[in-house]
Write a structure and sequence with these properties.
Blueprint lengths: L1 H34 L1 H27 L1 H9 L3 H6 L11 H10 L2 H6 L1 H17 L2 H5 L5 H33 L7 H9 L1 H18 L3 H22 L3 H4 L13 H4 L3 H24 L5
């Protein structure tokens, strides 16, 4: 009788441990998201204002659109590509104008730093602050610290994109720019999500490998700049053409003009998840600075 009771207790304990583990992960994720609400609003409004101003200036630029196209065409191809103005981009359309001014240049380069900063603070930042022993003394499995912070970053990033999308579509609607539909605006901002998560996941991996936050921030930041220019200049510089597939920007595209390429969207997201899994493995095996 006692043996069967003990066996039953063992089976009962396993689901309890699983439920407790899920509860801890959910609590960590929600707590981290709440801590980042103000940052989400600040980042969203800052990028949203850039988009709003761009939308507001479009009617005036539309009148001189062809002249602007001719002027852009006179620039060297390397300069056009470096500033996100691809071949065939029509600045007389709201889609082409927004792509060149916001979604192909400023937004991806600026917004990618949000997950980089958030991820670098998750492990290396906690070690530098001396709070890692408090976090792991919860008790909190190390993989949950990695997963919880990454999920919170993904949710926070979606919050920023919602704000950016509203600052893009609502002004266009108020100004009777019917060409910019809610579907195009939503696609433009959603397409930023896997790209930014990629660099956030890279930042998480660097945060797990290194003990210093400066390295966990600067390495993904350098990779961001290098990948952008490799992809941008690869269309005009022959020596860089073969390196384009190694840049995540090669799979980014221009969703506001052509829609989201879902295969690329899923592929970049999968690579980001792989980086996070590697971060969890590395962090589990290394010593902690307290």
């Amino acid at each position: 009788m006692s043996a069967s009771t003990g066996q039953g207790s063992a089976f009962a304990a396993k689901p309890n441990r699983t439920a407790r583990s899920r509860g801890t992960l959910s609590a960590l994720t929600l707590h981290t998201v709440r801590l980042r609400i103000r940052s989400v609003v600040i980042w969203g409004v800052a990028l949203g204002l850039l988009s709003l101003v761009t939308v507001a200036t479009f009617p005036a630029m539309e009148e001189q659109g062809q002249q602007l196209n001719d002027l852009i065409e006179s620039y060297p191809p390397e300069m056009r590509e470096a500033f996100g103005i691809g071949e065939g981009t029509d600045l007389t359309t709201i889609e082409g104008y927004m792509a060149s001014q916001v979604f192909n240049f400023m937004a991806p380069l600026a917004l990618a730093f949000f997950p980089i900063l958030a991820s670098s603070a998750a492990i290396a930042g906690a070690e530098e602050r001396g709070t890692m022993d408090v976090l792991l003394g919860a008790p909190l499995p190390r993989w949950q610290l990695v997963a919880g912070n990454f999920i919170a970053t993904a949710i926070s990033l979606l919050g920023i994109l919602v704000i950016l999308g509203l600052f893009t579509w609502v002004p266009a609607k108020l100004m009777d720019i019917e060409a910019l539909s809610v579907r195009e605006a939503a696609g433009a901002v959603l397409n930023l999500w896997p790209l930014c998560l990629f660099f956030g996941a890279l930042g998480m991996l660097c945060s797990a490998i290194f003990h210093r936050r400066v390295l966990a921030t600067s390495i993904p930041g350098a990779a961001l700049a290098a990948m952008y220019f490799v992809n941008a200049l690869g269309n005009t510089v022959e020596n860089l053409e073969n390196a384009q597939p190694f840049s995540v920007f090669h799979y980014y595209g221009s969703a506001i003009e052509n829609g989201i390429e879902w295969a690329d969207f899923a592929g970049v997201t999968a690579v980001a998840i792989l980086f996070v899994l590697l971060a969890a493995i590395v962090f589990r095996r290394r010593d902690i600075y307290t």
